[in-house]
Specification:
The chain is of the alpha+beta class and 64 residues long. It has one domain: Roll (Nuclear Transport Factor 2, Chain: A), CATH 3.10.450. β1 and β2 form a beta hairpin. The longest helix is centred in the last third of the chain and has 12 residues. The radius of gyration is 13 Å and the shape is elongated.
Length: 64
């Protein structure tokens, strides 16, 4: 699962969700996700925010 999910809301604005995946003792993946408070006018603005604040790299983004 890619750690950064970018979605477009009903108003046409973009939102960023940061996801963290780890595995329990039975090697089952657990995912924690946090929708960021910021709202972005473009997908590129959301990507730039993720790079600046979370160290995101190319290929780590998913779009829904």
């Amino acid at each position: 699962m890619k750690p950064f999910l970018i979605t477009k809301d009903e108003n046409g604005e973009f939102r960023l969700t940061v996801r963290r995946t780890w595995y329990n003792s039975q090697n089952y993946p657990l995912v924690d996700s946090k929708l960021q408070d910021e709202v972005f006018k473009s997908m590129n603005a959301a990507r730039a925010f993720a790079r600046e604040h979370f160290g995101a790299e190319a290929g780590q983004y998913a779009r829904a």
